[in-house]
Specification:
By secondary structure, the protein is mainly alpha-helical. It contains two helices and no strands. It is elongated and about 65 Å long.
């Protein structure tokens, strides 16, 4: 796909510009650690809730 094809396609969809957002390479590890921390916290919360439900049902 050429640049002209892309511009024509965007124009047919009513888009006038393209927006590109990126993070520099130096942000990769910190962002990955934050995401990992959030997922670990959610996992811990789900495990805690599962044990509470199971203990109540089979306690």
């Amino acid at each position: 796909m050429s640049q002209d094809d892309l511009v024509d396609c965007l124009a047919s969809l009513g888009a006038s510009e393209r927006y590109h957002d990126y993070h520099p390479a130096s942000h990769f590890r910190p962002l990955q650690l934050v995401e990992t921390g959030i997922l670990l916290a959610l996992t811990a919360l789900a495990v805690f809730a599962a044990f509470r439900v199971l203990r109540r049902l089979h306690g």
